[in-house]
Amino acid sequence: MSNKVLLVEDDLSISEMVRDYLLREGYDVTAVFDGIEAETAFKQGSYDLILLDLMLPGRSGTDVLQLIRNQSLVPVLIMSAKDGDVDKALGLGFGADDYITKPFSMIELAARVKAAIRRAGYPAVAERQNAAAGRLVHLGELTLDLDNFAVTKKGQEVKLTAKEFGILKLFATNPGRVFTKSQVYGFVWNEDYYGDENVINVHMRRLREKIEDDPSHPKYIVTLWGIGYKLGEF
Predict the structure, then answer these.
(1) Top CATH class, 133-231
(2) How many whole angstroms separate alpha carbon 43 and alpha carbon 40?
(3) What is the SS3 assignment for 134?
């Protein structure tokens, strides 16, 4: 089955060039040309990757990206003519998985598309392996029982609240993925995020106090300053 790509690019010549190349590479490509069309296509379809220009008519690429990230973990590859570090940090800080600067070669774009889709497949593989093994996830000295909402550390029970377990599970089942605070809130609370960082800060602090040897220097869920959090490496 072909991987499905949503291409969001308002420049017709670039859109046709990218679409035609990816079609030849075997991808199923849906092309839209403004931010409003992008949001509609995202809501109505299911995609393995989204190629997203930042400078869009109708609605900005960052607004589209925030909508996507509040509802989905689908990999997003930013395409932009802006090459400043601020723009890259902005794109990745909102939850993009990768960033490519225009003009780019089709070979480089295809390689990045393939890599982003491959990386996104790792959590699904891990979930299938967990299911076959009783849905246990091992992280260093921690073991998560996903079916019974239980956590142990060195064989000893760690008592977590439902939200604390939800946060830990989110990172444990998505290794390598970076989550902003709004994304953590959206996936764990299943509600729209209104910018109250204190809620996330309190729950993250309490979780770290329970699972970390040194909460001030966490190793299980690490902070990426100005961006969000990710699972530590084990």
Answers:
(1) mainly alpha
(2) 5
(3) coil
Residues 139-183: pLDDT tens digits? 999 999 988 889 999 999 999 888 899 999 999 988 888 888 888
Q: Please determine, for residue 5, whether its predicted confidence score (pLDDT) is greater than 50.
A: yes
Task: Answer yes or no: are the C-beta atoms of 61 and 78 closer than 8 Å.
Answer: yes
* CA pair distance 221, 151, nearest whole angstrom: 15
Q: Where are the domains of the chain?
A: 4-123, 133-231
Q: Which CATH class is domain 4-123?
A: alpha beta
Entry field: residues in the chain? 234
Q: For residues 90 and 37, what is the distance between their CA atoms, to the nearest angstrom?
A: 22
pTM exceeds cut of 0.90: no
Label residue 130 left, alpha or beta by phi (over 0 means left) and psi (-120 to 50 means alpha): alpha
SS3 of residue 104 by DSSP: coil
pLDDT digits over 197-232, tens only?
Answer: 778 888 999 999 999 999 999 999 999 988 889 999
